[in-house]
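Hey, resending since the last one bounced:
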Amino acid sequence: MFQKAKKAHRWVILTLLLMLGCAQPWEREPGPFDRNDLPLNIYNLRGNVWVAEDYNYYRTNLSMYIDHDAGVVFIGAGWSYKSARQLLWKAAANSYGPFQALIVPGYRLSYTGGLPPFQRHELKVIMQQNAPVLLRLHWDHMQQEMLQSFGSWRELSRLRQTYCIKIISP
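The structure tokens again:
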């Protein structure tokens, strides 16, 4: 009888250990989505600061500073042209001023995939000193990585060389 209870405890302990190794049910962050049709969740955080949550592919937060008269400064361009167009539309709906600048926090596609729609508005793009070089160097590799990971990813065209980029030294 004692042996059976001991074996049962082993199975219970083994099951609990296996459950601990799995994804925790209390995690609130969704995993990557193989989708490009989810709308951005755009909301006013406080005052002139707006946040856009992009759940397409990997979750990414973008932000905007919208002054109704002076204009708009964007931080990050999003994963895709669609994300960028949604940001531009929301900013245009909430400001009478011009689009002033786009601050790109890094060269990764989550911040640079939506650059072409911003190019049409001839915004000043502000990046760190080495970001344009890294962006051009890794562009094809990042595209291939996304194509292999997500069936819904559509390859983005290369950026125009004449794109206005202001370099900020660290």
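Residues 30-168 form a domain with the Metallo-beta-lactamase; Chain A fold (CATH 3.60.15.10).

Sorry for the duplicate.
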